[in-house]
Specification:
The complex is a heterodimer of chains A (about 240) and B (about 260).
Chain A lengths: L1 E10 L2 E11 L4 E5 L6 H8 L7 E6 L2 E2 L5 H8 L2 E4 L11 H12 L4 H14 L15 H13 L5 E5 L7 H17 L3 E5 L6 H4 L2 E6 L2 E6 L1 H5 L4 H8 L7
Parallel strand pairs in A: 3-8, 3-9, 6-7, 7-8
Antiparallel strand pairs in A: 1-2, 1-4, 4-5, 9-10
Helix pairs in contact in A: 3-4, 3-5, 4-5
Chain B lengths: L10 H31 L6 H12 L3 H25 L6 H39 L2 H7 L4 H39 L4 H11 L2 H27 L4 H30 L2
Helix pairs in contact in B: 1-6, 2-6, 3-4, 3-6, 4-6, 4-7, 4-8, 4-9, 6-8, 8-9
Amino acid sequence: MIKVEDLRKSFGRQAVLRGVDLEVPTGSITIIIGRSGGGKSVFLKHLLGLLRPDAGRIVVDGVDVTDLRGRALDQVRARYGVVFQGGALFDSLTCADNVAFPLREKTRSGNPEIARRVEDALDSVGLAGMGRKYPAEVSGGMRKRVSIARALVTEPEIVFFDEPTTGLDPVLVNTIHQLIVDLHRRRPFTAVMVSHEIPEIFEIADRVAMLHEGRIVEVGAPPVIQASDNPVVRHFIRGEPERAS
Amino acid sequence: MTVPALSPALRPFEVIGRRATEIAEALGRFATFFAQAVLTLVTPPFKLRAFIDRIDYIGFRSLLIILLTGAFTGMVLGLQIYLTLSRFGSEAFLGPAVALSLIRELGPVLSALMVTGRAGSALTAEIGIMRITEQIDALTVMALNPMRYLVVPSILAGLITFPLMTALFDTVGIFGGYLVGVRLLGLSEGTYFGEMQTFVDMRDVLTGFWKSVSFGVIVTWVATYKGFHVGHGAEGVARATTQAVVLASVLILVWDYFLGTVLP
């Protein structure tokens, strides 16, 4: 379980996280929704240890990781897989080499073993035989799928998805969501996803948390969120435009 | 906690103080970055493949521009020094004058400035793009040290390729001077090279060598630092690239003067 307690972060005078409290149960798909600029990506970067909070705690399976550094932090990160918003694939490597990269650098597997695992990973995201292409030569949807394959090839216990469907057409959004559900069903991992895709995310989430103005204002199973009385949540999931005050 | 507002009379001091603090912080980050790179360098594993790639990127691909600028620098020196020396009837010293200018000063400095413009800017842009597209974050969350993959191989490659490129620059420049002084202006070949052997000794070569080694570190350090600490978007990369070229060029000239006063 990932437990976040009273997480606070300010950049200069701007308070981005104002006391985030959240629990992510082991093996669940938890999706964080909220308006752009509401602190979702900043929150995710704290979970990944890329940013340090001003106050609060992040506890992963009973271990306080908030102030970990160096090798201790790397040991925790070794359990993570991350799918970045733009894919963050290495331009100079082929898709196959991108997927192979964490295996080559972090394991002692031999080349035949790595080749087999890469082919399996690409196959699992529907990209068998596409490994020789460079990221610049494939479509946005394919890049996201390569990124998912790279994140999952080391069989991590916790996978973070930062808006994995941003910029994709509705068909591809559903394809990627279905892919994540299928992969999760095959090998359950704890998933934390930041997404804007309303209402599609209600189909795949176990829990949904709404982050608004630096705080979690509502959290629960999709039906709970969909039936929420909270005006902020209702406003967001219905996509109602803001009224000028 | 709210900070009480300063009286208008004290505002200039606040501005100066804030700017001084920012500069001190930036210098601290710059030095810490290098210290981290050195620390990473002395701890295994060593990324040989990345190192070879960087040698190609910084050194091999800069060869043409080094050869061109070296040849024309030598030719200009040959012409100008010959014209000056001929006023005193001392044309015989053309060889050592060209060689000493190139080996001690112009070779290390000009080749470093050329490589800064070609490879230093490209290095900053490449690392900057990796930063804004989260590729560096991707390395970090894979529990891999980006310094090991991007910074250390570049600095080591700079350390090795800069002296080699300077040697090439010097050699081509000396032959450029020969072309003008001997072939075009009629100085004897024996005088050009003979006097050079008399006046140029190992100390001069070592001065040029140590300069080029230190320039290799300076250029790659500045270029990778600026790439790592790039701002937002394409504009941030463009600004970082410009800053890297300007800062590296200024540091080369300042450091050249400093070494010129220290080295024999």
